[in-house]
């Protein structure tokens, strides 16, 4: 069996792995990426947040991404019946990017993969990690190659960015269920000739269909749009037929989606996904760190996945390089705590969405402009700005504010 040697092995060529590999290479260490699939490959996660632009910039990916002409995204619009709440990222509390993109991920991830290869980082597709053995911080990873043969890669450090593959948590039994209930989605891409009638395509629209059922509408620059319903699995049992018949009936059950997509052609047969909320007992160990979805993916409602993936990939790779240079890293304080700060802020907003408190805040008839800016920062992915009270006190602010809004609404109704 052949054996290769490298400073850092990155598992997975999603956004987290590509950002991490670029940072390691820029620091002068040898790095190699292995990716189970052949690219381009479909993956869900098409609406980015402005905060991820900082990580993509640090990785050197922005010029290549700009050249693609992806659909620019400047905000997020929430719709519930005839109520509309529009959040413009340029009107947010935290300084930083107010623009990002809406991207078909097959293309987006391919651009990042092309860029890392252009930086002379070896990236092997159809190469799957099947086993890892640690000896202190050194490791030996066994991979299966495209022709079915096996080889070993010896590394001084492993960055596991394998997304839903969860390589190290699965191999070392670190998986733990998330504290969020299991949800399901049914989605497809549609032709979208009516998009300009709906004040788009330069932002994502989130439709509150029922208290616990919502819809994403993510237009791309190709003229096609991604539409997905997210709900408890039982919601989808209310509809019958083939996947196309089911999603067509679901689309037609909501006024907004019916007007815009009721007769639109599917670009591909609808797909379903469920059970995506998983976490792990530890984010790092001797000789490895987990990044992106492997740490935890919560819920798609606030498009947080790629931002958490790229920011954690950037942070982890920076720390790996410092450790390889001889520094002692306090991984708990420097990596786990900031990563959890971001994840837990989004967790409060996800839970607030599903318990209704955040929906009452978002659709408040007369929102306080300062509070709207602070919430807009969270929606833009700036979940590490502790100067923002809606980040610093994320677990405590939403319910009391929603209660005040409800009391005001009751008082108005009684007048
Ligand atoms: C329904 C739904 C909707 C979503 N919508 C959004 C959204 O709008 N915006 C957003 O930001 N996020 C969204 N997400 C989340 C998003 O999909 C992920 O957070 C994001 O893709 C994570 O990136 P990553 O780089 O960590 O992992 P991935 O993009 O999953 O990449 C991991 C890579 O590792 C490879 N791999 C796996 N196992 C192995 C192995 N054994 N060996 C080698 N390679 C391996 C995989 O093939 C894959 O290419 C959504 C998620 C769901 C479930």
UniProtKB/TrEMBL annotation:
Residues 6-222 form the FAD-binding domain. PANTHER family: FAD-BINDING PROTEIN, SLR1998 PROTEIN. This is Tryptophan 7-halogenase. InterPro entries: FAD-bd (IPR002938), FAD/NAD-bd_sf (IPR036188), Flavin-dep_Halogenase_NPB (IPR050816). GO terms for molecular function: FAD binding. It comes from the Bacteria.
């Amino acid at each position: 069996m052949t054996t290769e040697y490298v400073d850092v092995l990155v598992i997975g060529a999603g956004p987290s792995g590509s950002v991490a590999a670029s940072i390691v290479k820029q620091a002068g260490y040898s790095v190699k990426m292995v990716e189970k699939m052949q690219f381009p490959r479909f993956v869900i996660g098409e609406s980015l947040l402005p905060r991820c632009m900082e990580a993509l910039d640090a990785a050197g990916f922005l010029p290549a991404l700009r050249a693609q002409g992806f659909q620019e995204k400047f905000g997020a619009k929430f719709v519930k019946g005839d109520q509309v709440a529009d959040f413009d990222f340029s009107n947010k509390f935290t300084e930083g990017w107010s623009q990002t993109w809406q991207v078909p991920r097959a293309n987006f991830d391919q651009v990042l993969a092309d860029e890392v290869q252009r930086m002379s980082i070896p990236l092997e597709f159809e190469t799957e990690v099947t086993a890892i053995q640690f000896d202190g911080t050194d490791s030996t990873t066994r991979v299966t190659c495209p022709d079915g043969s096996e080889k070993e890669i010896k590394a001084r450090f492993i960055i596991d960015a394998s997304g839903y593959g969860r390589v190290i948590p699965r191999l070392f039994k670190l998986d733990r269920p998330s504290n969020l209930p299991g949800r399901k989605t049914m989605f497809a891409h549609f032709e979208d000739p009516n998009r300009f009638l709906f004040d788009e395509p330069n932002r994502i629209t989130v439709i509150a269909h029922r208290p616990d059922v919502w819809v994403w509408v993510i237009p791309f620059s190709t003229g096609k749009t991604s539409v997905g319903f997210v709900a408890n699995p039982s919601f989808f049992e209310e509809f019958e037929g083939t996947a196309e018949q089911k999603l067509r009936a679901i689309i037609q059950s909501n006024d907004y989606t019916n007007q815009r997509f009721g007769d639109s052609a599917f670009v591909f047969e609808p797909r379903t996904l469920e059970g995506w909320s998983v976490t792990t007992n530890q984010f790092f160990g001797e000789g490895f760190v987990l990044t992106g979805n492997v740490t935890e993916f919560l819920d798609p409602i606030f498009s947080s996945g790629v931002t958490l993936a790229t920011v954690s990939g950037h942070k982890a790779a920076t720390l790996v390089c410092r450790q390889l240079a001889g520094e002692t890293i306090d991984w708990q304080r420097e990596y786990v705590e900031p990563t959890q700060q971001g994840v837990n802020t989004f967790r409060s907003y996800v839970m607030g969405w599903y318990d209704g408190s955040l929906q009452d805040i978002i659709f408040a008839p007369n929102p306080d402009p300062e509070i709207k800016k602070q919430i807009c920062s969270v929606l833009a992915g700036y979940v590490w700005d502790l100067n923002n009270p809606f980040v610093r006190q994320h677990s405590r602010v939403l319910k009391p504010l929603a209660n005040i809004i409800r009391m005001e609404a009751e008082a108005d109704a009684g007048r």
